[in-house]
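Title: Prediction job returns without error message
Component: structure pipeline
Severity: low
Priority: P3
Assignee: unassigned

Description:
Job completed but the reporter wants confirmation the result is attached to the right record. Sequence as submitted:
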Amino acid sequence: MHRERRRKNQVRYRMKQRELVKTLGEDVRNLESEIQDLEVRRHNASIGIPTHQTLWTIATEYFLLFRHGFRLPPQALQNAALNFLRVSMAPDVVNGCQRGVEAILAKWRLFSDYFNNVHVELERLEKSASPYSLTAITITTVTISKEAMRAVFPHLNSDGKGGAHGGNWSPLGQRLLNQRLVMRGSVRFDWDSASDSVVSIQSQSDMLTPLLRVLDSLEDVSLVFEGALVAPDCRLASFDW
């Protein structure tokens, strides 16, 4: 009888322990969620973004978040960026040929992996003919790194291997390596008043003009783009074609 009572007590004790662990786990998850929300609020407050967002404030916040690209950002910034996009963009927001807020982050990560020292300056915001559209005029500065050469211009080689696999770059490729390009461009934001969210982001930057300054030959610029995985308006093949 005593042994049976002890066994039942042990069973009840283990059940209480499991329930306690479950409750603690839920509390931890709730706390993590609250911390993330507070971090986003703190971040937005620090740059003066109001609680009620408009197309103008969303565009401003967008360029503040991505002014240095999105290469290996701190976890807090990743969380803030994803939260901001989910709150201000439609779930199926169009970005080039892709859809969804995750695609926006993936595109910024890829662009930042391809090019070094990314800096995006918001020069000004312009009203469009439609009250539901806004155009941002930008200046994007990047360095053509080895990673960019391998990923975007692998055809600029002299031995058939394309420096991507340890081969040698052609004289044209060597002239591009480590060059700093300053590209003027624009980003159009389209707004849906019914859902109070951005439904489309379309961007372009003029890569042709700074390349022409570097190479001083339209023929050479044409050869650069002929087999490149980026277009003259800076659209990446893997995302925008």
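Comment from assignee: result matches the submitted record. The first helix runs from residue 2 to 46.
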